[in-house]
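Hello,

Our lab assistant flagged a job as stuck in the queue for most of the afternoon. It eventually completed. Since we weren't sure the result was trustworthy after the delay, we are filing this so someone can double-check. Below is the sequence as submitted and the structure that was eventually returned. Let us know if re-running is recommended.
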Amino acid sequence: MRTPITQRVQKHRDGLRAAGLRPVQIWVPDTRREGFALECKRQSLLLRNDPHEVDVQNWVQAAADTAGWQ
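-- returned structure --
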């Protein structure tokens, strides 16, 4: 027997599916994990003088809409 909460959740999910949506699970790095910041720094240093990275960063900076940012 389903509880009222699980019935509401299922109804909500059924409505989303009826609207053409589907559930997706996404796994992302755990930023709270020990060593995460150190690994980010390590990877950033590897890219510091990479010419392709410089091109990408220049493009991102030119394409970014930062109007109104503080």
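-- support follow-up --
The delay was a queue issue, not a problem with the job. The result is valid. The mean pLDDT is 94. Residues 55 and 61 are 10 Å apart (CA to CA).
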